[in-house]
Amino acid sequence: MKLDKFTVGKRYGKALFELAMEEQRLTEVYQELMTLRQIYQEIPTFGQIVTDNRLDLHEKRQLVDQLLKGFEGLVRNFLEIVYEYDRMDDLLLIIDEYERRYDEYQGLVLGTITTAVALSAEQKSKIEKQIADKLGYKQAQLKETIDPTILGGVIVEANHQVIDGSIKSQLDYLRQKIGR
């Protein structure tokens, strides 16, 4: 049975996180993975080249060996396994899962906050603190999005939860109740 990319990313990311925890190298591995993500983002064709089955295996292996030179121990060995199992095209999903677990371990929840107008730094900080407290984390880091169609209020998405306090959703709710 072939696993979907999301499942592969979660499994491999979890395995790497658990190994890093055992070796007490969570932060080092995290930093190396962020470097690897940056390489993939700065050279978008790199991921395509490494996963292209039409290319000669020897050439692909040379590229991977060049990449591995920049990494040590755990990450290097892990990348070897990912390459050998032909999962290089899942690498960014693996990194995302590791990062999610790392942030959670650090007590950080990531999410987005949508408002009709820009928030002041103080307002955003206050909302982040409230969200962290509500979800049981030490800290929340919310990426701000402006969407005038919500009319007012806020919509927060974090930890697979949505808290919709927008005026638009409240008006929609009232329309639904009155329309019955």
Describe this structure in words.
- With 180 residues, this protein is α+β, with helices and mostly antiparallel strands.
- The chain has 2 domains: 5-103, Peroxidase, domain 1; 108-179, no CATH class.
- The chain has 8 helices and 4 strands, in the order H-H-H-H-H-H-E-H-E-E-E-H.
- It has helices at residues 5-22, 26-42, 44-51, 57-68, 73-84, 91-105, 121-135, 167-179, and strands at residues 108-115, 139-146, 154-158, 161-164.
- A 4-stranded mixed sheet has the order 2-1-3-4.
- A hairpin with a 2-residue loop joins strand 3 and strand 4.
- The longest helix has 18 residues, at 5-22.
- It is elongated.
Quick recap:
By secondary structure, the chain is α+β, with helices and mostly antiparallel strands.
Keywords:
elongated; 2 domains; alpha+beta; Peroxidase, domain 1; 180 residues
